[in-house]
Amino acid sequence: MNILIKRFIKNYQDVDNATVRNDYGKFSSVMGIIFNVILFTIKLIAGLLSGSVAIVADAVNNLSDASSSIISFIGFKLASKPADADHPYGHGRYEHISALLVACLVLAIGIEILKSSIEKIIHPTDINASIITIVILVISILVKLYMMYFNTKTGKLIKSKTLIATAQDSRNDVISTGAVLLSIIISFAFNLNLDGIMGVLVAIFILVSGLMLVKDTLDPILGIAPEPETVKTISDLISSYEYVLGIHDLIIHDYGPGNTFASVHCEVDSKIDVLLAHDQIDNIERDVFEKTNIHLVIHYDPIVTDDGITMEIREKINTIVKGIKSNMSIHDVRVVPGPTHTNIVFDIVVPHDVTYTQKELRQMITSEVRKINPKYICVITFDLEYASYEQH
């Protein structure tokens, strides 16, 4: 297979290149179509000759796999289309949609196999399997094992959920074909007809796997939390710059492989010259894109660092907030004094595992802050946590 990859995929080692990545996907899909059509043909012949509903069902499953590979090919083809006026973020999510279609097809096949297997249990027929049938099934298992290995390796290489889903489907085929083979061997050895029962077990396994695939492919379409490694990489890159005191409100949007956008607030000492700070922010955005291929937009947050009162109040409020929930954090603390009261303005990042309502949090924090000074009025903005990362 490596020889074919080198022949048909130019610059095959440059897997971060969008064109190379799509070529890998299309190549894997074409190989899937060829292998599955061959397996469908030989299994169908074996199933019809032996009268085994399980083998015929397994053959139909291979035909669905060929259809899945066609869908994957179309998905990679559409995902490679450049951005246009109607889709300025590109078409990368077509790949996620194709993976979802593959998962739905797996479910449909599982339902059909379940129906035919139950019918076989109710109205059993004799199986006339031969050594040729067994050899065909063994060959099928070996081919599917290789396809599982190849798609897993390629899927991880180019970070493709579609190919990972295809690899899992190949694993399902190994198990289902192995179950069919086992039923035939038992039939030979003990004269027991387990064809329908094995068909039901195979169908249940396929259905469970299909549901798991649906979940895995729906997540990126709905908008899944970014990988912790990605968040840490961006956070560490930004925080490595001299004038950055801290970051917050990091949001990452995934529009498909190679189309990731992010925004973040960077805290900078207010005494730093604005032009100098802006220049560094430009450098950070460029650096992040070059090292991660993520389009980053930074919001500049000037922080007062020489006001002792503000810094003291910030520390006290931070202690109060951490006492309520250790993974909550505050930022953008401002003190606005007045003749009768002082507004303490700040934002709180609330992780998703916090069970208190915003009203409850506001009351708890305000009550504790008023103990510091009865004239303090809390003006709180609540932020949801879109990416879990260590606060700097």
Proportion of strand residues? 5-15%
The helix content is: 55-70%
What is the element string, with H for helices and E for strands? HHHHHHHHEEHEHEEHE
Radius of gyration: 29 Å
Order of the strands making up the biggest sheet: 1-2-3
Could you list the spans in which at least 5 consecutive residues all have pLDDT below 50? Answer: none
Helix run count: 11
Number of E-type strands: 6
* Terminal-residue CA separation: 47 Å
Average per-residue pLDDT, rounded, comes to: 85
Q: Profile the largest sheet.
A: 3 strands, mixed
The oligomerization state is single chain
Label the overall shape.
elongated
What structural category arises from helix and sheet content? alpha/beta
Describe the structure.
By secondary structure, the protein is of the alpha/beta class. Helices cover 62% and strands 15% of the residues. The chain has helices at residues 2-8, 18-50, 53-79, 94-122, 131-158, 161-190, 195-222, 228-239, 274-292, 308-324, 358-372, and strands spanning 244-254, 260-269, 294-303, 329-337, 342-350, 376-384. Strands 1-2-3 form a three-stranded mixed β-sheet, covered by helices on one side. A hairpin with a 5-residue loop joins strand 1 and strand 2. Helix 3 (53-79) packs antiparallel against helix 4 (94-122) and helix 5 runs antiparallel to helix 6 (161-190). The radius of gyration is 29 Å and the shape is elongated. The chain starts with a helix and ends in an 8-residue tail after the last strand. The model has no long low-confidence stretch (mean pLDDT 85).
